[in-house]
Amino acid sequence: MYRPLAVLRVLxxxxxxxxxxxxxxxARGGAWSNTDHVTSGLLVLAVLTVWTGVVVWAYAKPExxxxxxxxxxxxVAVAAILVSPLVKGPSLQATLPGFWVGGAVLAWAVHxxxxxxxxxxxxxxxxxxxxxxxxxxxxxxxxxxxxxxGLIVGYASGLLKQMAAARDEAQREAAEARERAQLARVVHDxxxxxxxxxxxxGLEHGGEVAELGRLAADQEAALRALVQRRTNASPAGSxxxxxxLSSLQSALVTVSVPGSPVVMSAGAVREVVAVVxxxxxxxxxxxxxxxxxxxxxxxxxxHVVVSVRDDGxxxxxxxxxxxxxxGRLGVSESIQGRVRDLGxxxxxxxxxxxxxxxxxxxxxxxxxxx
Length: 370
Fold this sequence. Notes:
The protein is built from 11 helices and 7 strands. By secondary structure, the protein is an alpha+beta fold.
C-alpha cells in the first residue's frame, strides 16, 4: 500500500504547487495580492517537495518505516498548515499544502490501521481549525473527508494484512502437505518395501530369522502409521483419530481405518487411544502374549465407532462384576469410565469360546482439553 501512496503524494504535491501559482497569478487584486510573503511560500513548497522525495524513498523499504519517521511526517504536515497564515496573511482561504497533508494521514492509517489514521486526521483537523477565525462548510467537509479517509484506509489496511497472513499460512500448509506426500512416497518405495521383504523371508526360513521377520513387521506397521499421521495433518487443536490408532498396529494387532482422516479434538483422540490401549492390554493379559487382535474405526453420521476384537476364550458371565467387586477397575474405569466421560457408550459382546469385542461409540463433536 505504500507504493500507491507514494504516487498519490507526488500528485498531491503537484496539486498544491499548481494551486499556489494559479491562485497567486489570478488574484482579483493583481498577481500575488493574496499572498503577503511569496518568497516564504515558495520556500515552504520547496521544503514540501524535498520532504515528499524523502518519504517516498523512506517508505519504500520496510526497515525504514519506523515510528520516528511517521511522527516527523505528521509534524511536517501540521507545520505546513500552521505557517500558512504567516505566508498568506489575513486573506487566507486555503492552506499552503492543501490536500498534501492527506499523505501523512494515510501513511499513519497504513502503518497503525484505523486508530493511527484517526489520530493523524484529528491532528491535521485541529491544526487547520486553529488557524481560522471561522470554519466554512467547504472546510468542514474537507475535515470530515480526511477523517473518513483515515478510518477507511486504516480498516482496509488491517483487512489486507489479515488476508496476507491467511494466504501465507495456506501456502505454508500446502508446501508442508507436498513435502509430507513426497516423504511418504520415498518411505513407501524404500524402507517399507525392505521391511516387508524381511518379514516374508523371515517367516519362510523360520527359527531366529522368523523372530527377525516379526520385528520387521512391527517396525513396518509403526512406520506406516507414522507416515499416515504426517500425511493426514489435522487443523490446530485437533487430531486424526485414524492416524493415532494406526500407531497401535503390529504383527499381532490389525488396525482398519477409513481412507480419510477422522478429525476430533486432540484431547478426545488421546482418551480414545488410551481406551483402545487398555482393551489391547486385556487381550495380552487374559488371552495371551501371542493373541491376535483387531481394531476398526467407522464413521456413522455424527458418531465415530471404534471396535476392538479378539479371538480368545471370551468372558464368562459374572466375571466383570466379580472383578469390580474385588477392586480391579481396568474395565470399569480405564475403558467404560473414560468413554462415559467422553459422552459415549462402551458395549461389550462376549461369550465363552467366542472371543470378546468392545464397541465404543462416541459423538464426533466431543471436545476435551488437550
